[in-house]
Amino acid sequence: MALFGSSKKSRIGVDIGTASIKIVELEKDSNRFKLVNYGIFELEPGDQAITSPGREGSQKIFQLSDQDVVTGIKQVLTDAGIKSRDAIASIPSFPTFTTTITLPFLSEEELAKTVPYEARKYVPIPLTDVQLDWSVVGVHKDAPQPNVSVFIVAVPKTEVSRYQTIMRQAGLNLRALELENFALIRALIGNDLSPMAIINIGGRSTSILIVENGFQQLSRDYEVGGFEITNSIARALGITMKRAEEMKRSRGMNTDEANVIREAMSSLVDMMALEATKTIYNYEDAHKIKIARILLVGGLANMPHFIEYFAEKLGREIVPGNTLARVVLDPALDAKREELNSTFAVSLGLAMREI
After folding, report:
1. Which helix (H) or strand (E) holds 277?
2. Same domain, 107 and 72
């Protein structure tokens, strides 16, 4: 019991994306999460890009510079009046290596010796240069040959050091780094163990995540996001990016009129839907299961008529992910519920990690 001051424990979740920095401050009181504060710092169109090698070739990924990240974090903390300095930060998928492998049913001690040896087959750089972590995501004792599924994640030590430096320069106490997908799972599904897909549409990319038994089983990232859609509208109408963004948010996939905006977006949205369909179908086919739930998060989830259009293209029901199911909001923030629910999904999951 605390003798002085409040006994409430608070943490901040810092979601460092390729197009924005989103921060939330959560507090836990009587086993409930309470949203204390939140803020966002957004990348301006046209800022720098990096090239990230992947299995499907090089990807051009727009990214805030490290100094921009430090400046952005400080600005959000100040403008929003966020008090806590104990932070859990996200690390994106593109600089990391993840895979799920199958091993014979082994004791925990035997797994600890076997996993690093097996990881060498999948991690394309020396294990001495990465921080390796793993977890058992499936136990199959009744199989003809009992086995376990093990999820492996390897993060280059240079990336870990980079994030530690950014957090330190921003005046934060970095308590943990976590893959953004893990934070999404924590925020969205709670104790639900059924197979489901999470589609997270970010500013510069879209990730499709398959979750089963509460663990990530598969993740695919595609270089199409909200920025490309805004850019398509701007080109089609000959307007500025700022004006195109405003029109995207206000009109969306509206079908009530001859909608030039809808036409400008449809080819990119159709591409997102096609990739999601392939990813989900291939997993269902390989594992002989049915993905019954598809959750959508990201800024586009709030765009008028987007969910209906996307669901029609997938031929499946899609629902907005509810990241606020276990979070108490101040009544004054009720009008912001939809924006917070979809846009701050990762940062909410990060802040939930240690409270």
Report:
1. helix 260-287
2. no
